[in-house]
Specification:
eight-stranded antiparallel sheet; 8 strands; alpha+beta; 6 helices
């Protein structure tokens, strides 16, 4: 492919979205949040330089963020130097009329072990702090704040809208001492 062909391919959805019928933001957000809460597993992509990793991982959703406990793993190579992540949640493909999935671009941060936020999330997950303290290696908590969510739901067609809809969020700086 030429540079021009790559650029055209990269801009495909931007051009299509520019003329598509948009769903009202509050309805889109309600549908997106319902979908997020109806699931608990995503594919989390992290990267730095020429290293990219995509990890299936369980998540929880609350306080406008994705929360993930992790023992560790190669995803931390990217998280160490690059807070920008992408995660995907999706249903199994059956047909074009039943598409349901989303890509979430966001900012990740590690929550300090046994901080108020860490302890609150452990309580939500019904994980004893005593058990967490006794683990031979720490259980890390990743918090991801969405910056952009691209939803692809065939259901949107019922409202006379494009099946692809985008939610944009204000990009807030990461909190060092969370």
């Amino acid at each position: 492919m030429t540079d021009r062909e790559y650029q055209a391919a990269a801009c495909y959805w931007d051009e299509k979205d520019a003329s598509s019928i948009r769903l009202e933001r509050s309805r889109l957000w309600a549908m997106a949040e319902t979908y997020i809460q109806a699931n608990n597993t995503c594919a989390l992509a992290t990267g730095a330089g020429d290293y990219v990793r995509c990890t299936p991982i369980e998540y929880s959703w609350h306080d406008g963020c994705f929360w993930m406990f992790s023992e560790g793993g190669r995803k931390f190579i990217g998280l160490r130097s690059n807070p920008h992540v992408c995660l995907a949640i999706y249903d199994s493909y059956k047909s074009g009329g039943s598409l349901r999935g989303m890509q979430v671009m966001g900012l990740a941060e590690l929550v300090a072990p046994f901080s108020a936020a860490y302890n609150a999330h452990a309580a939500r997950k019904k994980i004893s702090l005593e058990i967490l303290r006794k683990l031979p290696s720490p259980m890390h908590l990743i918090r991801i704040r969405p910056v952009r969510i691209d939803c692809l739901f065939s259901d949107f067609k019922k409202f006379g809208c494009s099946p692809r809809q985008t939610l944009l969020f204000e990009e807030m700086p990461l909190q060092e001492d969370f």
